[in-house]
Amino acid sequence: MDIFIQQLVNGVVLGSIYALVALGYTMVYGILGLINFAHGDLVMVGALSALALLKVCLAVGLGLPASLALATLGAVLLCGGLGVLIERVAYRPLRSAPKLAPLITAIGVSILIEYGAAMIWSKQYLALPPVIQSTTWQLAGAAITDLQVAIVVMASVLMAGLLWLIRATPLGVAMRATEQNAEVAGLMGIDTHRVIAITFLIGSGLAALAGIMVLLYYGVAHYFMGFMLGLKAFTAAVLGGIGSVPGAMLGGLLLGLIESLGAGYVGELTGGVFGSNYRDVFAFIVLILVLVLRPAGLLGTASGERA
Amino acid sequence: MNLPQRIAQWWVHGQTWPGASWTRRLLVVVALALLPFLLEAVAGRAWVRIADIALIYAMLAVGLNLVVGFAGLLDLGYVAFFAVGAYAYGLLASPQFGIHASFLLLLPLGAIAAACFGVLLGAPTLKLRGDYLAIVTLGFGEIIRIFLNNLNQPVNITNGPQGVTLIDPLLLGSFSFGKPHSMLGVTVAPVHAYFYLLVCMVALSMLVARRLQNSRIGRAWAAIREDETAARAMGIDTRNLKLLAFALGATFGGVAGGLFAAVQGFVSPESFTLQESVMILCMVVLGGMGHVAGVVLGAIVLTALPEALRVVGPLQKAAFGHVWIDPADLRMMLFGLALIVMMRWRPAGMWPAPGWARRTPSAVGSKPQVAARGRDDAP
Amino acid sequence: MTLLEARGIAKRFGGVNALDGVSLAIGKGQIYGLIGPNGAGKTTFFNCLTGLYRHDAGRFWLDGVELDTRSPDRVVKSGIARTFQNIRLFAGLSVLENVMVGRHARSGVGALGAVLDTRAFRAEETAVRARALELLGYVGLQARRDEPARNLPYGDQRRLEIARALATDPRLLALDEPAAGMNATETAVLRTLLERIRADGVTLLLIEHDVKLVMGLCDRVAVLDFGQLVIEGEPDTVRRDPAVIAAYLGATVGDAP
């Protein structure tokens, strides 16, 4: 039972991170109908750039809170800018091209970012300096750290903010209008290029924040970390219903739980034939199952809310 | 017509090279027969080996082109089928299980195994939007590697990260490709023998691909690539035809995998990474999607590229006293850049399919609107 | 003799009844017009008939046999072909290739036959090409056969789409606004073509906004409004029906200065 609750806690933390990344996939997919393969790599850029900035800030003698804040700000700005740049340079010229072209471009962008990062930050696993002291609480037999709580709270606040933005602001209306029908939205005076750029900006900023959470949680970052994370976040988006913002949140959370519990129990369930080294397989199985059983996802219906 | 004009015709207008004839074909055969010896004399035996590998990649590129170029589906985990073929051969023709089956049995077996994986993966995915296939194959490429890496316990099947070693060379009757042979006073080393075999296999693959392309099946694939809804309304069972393209592509991968295992003598999960899939995709995109000869050229050029990039390391060392960019990483960056640049400025590839130029849109420009997502279409 | 019978066809999108129990019967050799205001459900009816949408209720019979609309290719094999409101050609393929694709459902050699280059495969290829060329001649596009479809002028694209549909050997040809965007001359040419197709034994079902064309060409006309059949009958009867004038023609007359 203790293990169960522990895995539940881990799953919620993991799920919050997946959800943040899934939002980026689902927003871009909703508005452009494009799987932005480079999105996972922005998480990696967020983590590695934040780590580099954090080290610099600490080295010049800034305090931990100030360093962390600066590193976060820097990483979010960098990723946001990078996201907008990618959209402008790589995807926008291909709006009227055959569907295969932006997909191939997206995988090209992903590879370019990964190996660009390898060039800048090397291919080593880079460790976070031991500056974050986390307190551990015992709850119903499970250990919970304040860092875990902070991640879940932060992610929830960000997601609530995004929902508010989409539902209650003029920008959100413009985004939903563009998603419904870009041509008509353009005729109604909405600058759809700008709306799409803002979508990339927000999605990439969230990716950077997710990257920082991963960095703090696991204590390491790596040039290839965005690949598997991106794949899982996309699975989460499909699970929730691609194009649906609440769906991405639900899908992320569910996938985190499935993966944690799956990895925790797979050894017992299969009599030791499969171990937790197969944890990355769960997301894939979920993806295939969703595509077979409910391709629209849990919250995705033809008339469902999208953003 | 003089040579520059011919080249201009071929490059700008995408026409076939003028003057195809039997004499030219004969010249090609003679040139290919002499090539490994020339290559060895000029650049050393290592280059003959590189040529062998290039030919295996050419087979892979032709296979992936069926999926990407003909049917317009994006497969980002193509190397998984290559792995299935390679391990099928490696496991059943090596001391791993003490089985030494004939390759005449194992190549078809590997092909069928790869095709089965293709169908298993494609069947749930291909009835949905085309781009789901991209992400599912991307995931599958990684998953298969996880299995290859970890299926050494509790029962040792794949021998884990160490891979399978001492794989049997091909044996055709009493002719072993693993030993040197003396013929007409010339010594034919294994690399040479494999070269000839692989040239034949590539030629066969190209023939199969070309015949498919110019058939009812190839036309249906082209229709699906151009407009899936219209293709459906023309009586094409799009799901089955997409599945056929995907399974046939996988079959090519499986056969190439078996040959790869035999040529190399060992296989390990390291040969089947995402980077390999991206490289094969690059061969197709750079060579010219939908153009069989183009993707073969793309495969040859891109296999030679790392060898050419090898000088980059020492060059940096000489210039900066430090290696900033690892040549292997530089290669991947160039691949990524190439995919972006090609899609933007030359989507038909370096060597476009004949008649492609007439197919370019008269006005290439971005309309201020989002790509149509076919809201009026069937679900 | 009835060729196509639709009974109680219904299709719902979310809370909207796009089609609300539409029943109609089209006789063999007729030119049958389907008219109605925008959003009346005409194209939805086409999509249900041709298997692109799955309708929620109702059934179709073609020549007395129930139509299997579970997938578009089955519908085509049964003998119904269609064109699209916003022309959907295979833009990158040549004019000839477009029509050859239309022969897909009427030919059968598979991948193996093509790879082995069998006698049957060659014979079939020759036949497909010959039939496609014949159809291009029929619509007057033979001279442009090697051009990519996207280079054709608008009117030619419409006719190519009709040739491609005819290549499937349909008994019923369903045309979604064939005259949309055409000038008077092009419409006249189209009208001649449609009459010739009918004379060659193909029944026609067309959605059309050009009232003059519909009234002059069609043997029978059905009016849809809000997903329901308002009236069905001969053009003259329909034209005088008060409900039609209110729903559709009335608006046109009322708008005229």
What's a quick, concise take on this entry?
Chain A is mainly α. Chain A is built from 11 helices and 4 strands.
Written overview of the protein:
- The complex is a heterotrimer of chains A (307), B (379) and C (257).
- By secondary structure, chain A is mainly alpha-helical.
- Chain A has eleven helices and four strands.
- Chain A has a single domain (2-122, 143-293), classed as ABC transporter involved in vitamin B12 uptake, BtuC (Orthogonal Bundle).
- In chain A, strands 1-4 form a two-stranded antiparallel ribbon.
- The model of chain A is unreliable at 302-307 (pLDDT under 50).
- Chain B has a domain at 46-273.
- Chain B has 14 helices and six strands.
- Chain B is globular, with a radius of gyration of 22 Å.
- Chain B is mainly alpha-helical and 379 residues long.
- Residues 357-379 of chain B have low confidence and may be disordered.
- In chain B, helix 4 packs antiparallel against helix 5 and helix 11 (274-287) packs across helix 12.
- In chain B, the strands form three sheets. In chain B, strands 1-2 form a two-stranded antiparallel ribbon.
- Chain B has helices at residues 3-12, 22-43, 45-70, 79-92, 103-125, 130-150, 190-213, 216-226, 228-233, 238-264, 274-287, 292-309, 312-320, 327-345, and strands at 93-94, 99-100, 171-172, 175-176, 181-183, 186-188.
- Chain C has 257 residues and is α/β, with parallel strands linked by helices.
- Chain C has a domain at 2-79 and 170-255: P-loop containing nucleotide triphosphate hydrolases (Rossmann fold, 3-Layer(aba) Sandwich), CATH 3.40.50.300.
- Chain C contains ten helices and ten strands.
- Chain C has helices spanning 42-49, 72-78, 95-102, 111-116, 119-139, 154-166, 184-199, 211-217, 235-240, 242-255, and strands spanning 2-13, 16-27, 31-35, 57-62, 65-66, 80-82, 172-176, 203-207, 220-225, 228-233.
- In chain C, strands 6-7-8-3-9-10 form a six-stranded mixed beta sheet, with helices on both faces. Chain C has a four-stranded antiparallel beta sheet with strand order 2-1-4-5, with helices on one face.
- In chain C, a hairpin with a 2-residue loop joins strand 1 and strand 2 (16-27).
- In chain C, helix 3 (95-102) crosses helix 5 (119-139), helix 3 (95-102) runs parallel beside helix 6 and helix 5 crosses helix 6 (154-166).
- Chain C is globular, with a radius of gyration of 19 Å.
- Mean pLDDT of chain C is 90; it is low at 252-257.
- Chains in contact: A-B, B-C.
- The interface between A and B is large, with 63 and 55 residues.
